[in-house]
Structure formats: structure tokens, C-alpha cells
Design a protein that fits this description.
The chain is an alpha/beta fold. The protein has a single domain, classed as P-loop containing nucleotide triphosphate hydrolases (Rossmann fold, 3-Layer(aba) Sandwich), CATH 3.40.50. Helices cover about 15% and strands about 35% of the residues. It has two helices and eight strands. The protein has an eight-stranded mixed β-sheet with strand order 1-2-8-7-3-6-5-4, covered by helices on one side.
């Protein structure tokens, strides 16, 4: 699944190779910057049917009812370090209708799904740990 757009002169290019991508990295590496760029683009361009952005830090509860009826969406979940277990975890790993970008500081999950943000000038992308760094 590809997501490409330009927002405020920033080129965003995401090539999601897996239905669930774990975007990880230390503080200040661009994770939340990428999330906020996608969120702002989505809101300003009325993309709510295709892109859902959830910030766990500002969200009471991410319930399955928020996700069950979505189809063909990319769902970004920021500050998600603590949701990689339980019913929600089982749901998104078994959801074949949507793509998920789970964003946090540290995860001990499948290396094939683990990615890092890559920012070069005015270009933002992601790099899976099994690839060479490039945008």
C-alpha cells in the first residue's frame, strides 16, 4: 500500500509492505512529526474515510468499535507503546481490511515489520530495518 502526498512543501512517501508496520525510534527522530503531517493532511483534505489518526496520549480509549467498520483505510496509532497486547493487538493483527502504522519508542516485535522514520530535507519516508537507508 502506498501513500504519497505533498503537504506544506513536505513530500511524504510511504510504501507499506505489511498490513502492520511498527514505526519505532528514540525521541526526536521524526515519528510524531510524520504522524502529525499525515493527520493534518488527512483533516485538511477530508480523507477521514481513508486515513484514521489516533494519538493514544490524547484519546480516552481506542475501542474495537472505532475500527470494526473501517475498510481500505490506513490507521496511524501514535504513542502506542502499551497497546501491543490484548484484544486490540489481536484485532489489528488479524484485520485483513486495513493497514496499520503503530508508532512508539521501543518495541520487541517481528523485525520484518519494524521501521524507522527517514527525513531528508523536505522528504519524509519510512525505512524497514531489513532495507538500506534511502528515501
Amino acid at each position: 500500500m502506498e501513500l504519497k502526498f505533498e503537504y506544506e512543501r513536505i513530500q511524504v512517501e510511504l510504501n507499506l509492505k505489511s498490513r502492520v508496520t511498527i514505526l519505532s525510534g528514540d525521541s526526536g527522530t521524526g515519528k510524531s512529526y510524520l504522524y502529525n503531517t499525515v493527520k493534518n493532511f488527512s483533516v485538511e483534505n477530508d480523507m477521514g474515510d481513508n486515513i484514521l489518526c489516533i494519538d493514544i496520549g490524547n484519546y480516552q480509549l481506542v475501542g474495537l468499535s472505532d475500527l470494526r467498520n473501517r475498510k481500505n483505510s490506513i490507521i496511524f496509532i501514535d504513542q502506542a507503546d502499551d497497546i501491543l497486547e490484548g484484544e486490540l493487538y489481536d484485532f489489528y493483527y488479524n484485520d485483513h481490511d486495513n493497514y496499520y502504522v503503530i508508532i512508539g519508542r521501543s518495541f520487541a516485535n517481528d523485525v520484518d515489520q519494524l521501521a524507522r522514520p527517514v527525513i531528508k530535507g523536505k522528504h519524509i519516508g519510512i525505512k524497514y530495518l531489513t532495507e538500506d537507508y534511502r528515501v
